[in-house]
Amino acid sequence: MTITTSRVSTTAALAASGVSCEAGTRTVLSGVDLDVRPGEVLGLIGANGTGKSTLLRVLAGVRPAAAGEVLLGGRPLHQISSRERARQIAFVAQEETAPSDLLVSELVALGRIPHARAWGGVDSASRRAVAEALRLVDLEYAAGQSMDRLSGGERRRALIARGLAQEAPVLLLDEPTNHLDIKRQLALLRLVRRLCRDRARTVVLALHDLDLAATFCDRIAVLHGGGLFAHGTPAEVLTASVLHDAFGVLATRVTHPLTGRTHLLFSHDESELHP
């Protein structure tokens, strides 16, 4: 079963048209049609190995599509120079090893390279961007520390700050909540929502936590079976049948009595589910 509620649009901030992705010599995704609308949060979900990270790399231009085309603001991504692409798309990978001898502020400043002048140097705009990025992830206290002194969660936030300092209108995050405790996870995803609402950012993020995806994403794309299995709002795609087929789990939706938000409950026993 495949659910789709939108078609690729040339007015999208970022779009994949008939995209196929390879990992090594293996095709992991094929025929992906997906659009990301300006100012929205699009979540990528799927079981391990379904191609979330690979698709994000293709959308970022880090890896070429095996077939099809990625469009950035209606322009073919492969026709855009790497410098201009880096001004338009910031990508934070799932696992990155930052040089241990860099100060946190130096790492974050690497996000300003696409904006650097030919003669080098750090201008006042870049200094402000670095300071603001550290503030947004609550890491100002560590600006002068070396990366090897940070915890795993702090390193993750520093890498995200580097992506924020890039000030690109499109932000791609691969499992951004990795290594973060629940308080930091919620703070980060609230920040993502604010960036889209207040700063006109467009965000695509891969998530494992389906409940967080349901809470913070405007739309969700489910990868399964080598392609785009379902695509729509959380209410449209996070159904018991889709979750059973894509993840092999039994789930039911419940409404929080205080917030009115919908959450997912999972079961090991099919008899525990209510119709």
Automatic annotation (TrEMBL):
Keywords per UniProt: ATP-binding, Nucleotide-binding
Any one GO molecular function term = ATP binding
Looking up SUPFAM superfamilies in the UniProt record yields: P-loop containing nucleoside triphosphate hydrolases
Query: Domain ABC transporter spans what residues?
Result: 14-250
Q: Protein name, please?
A: ABC transporter ATP-binding protein
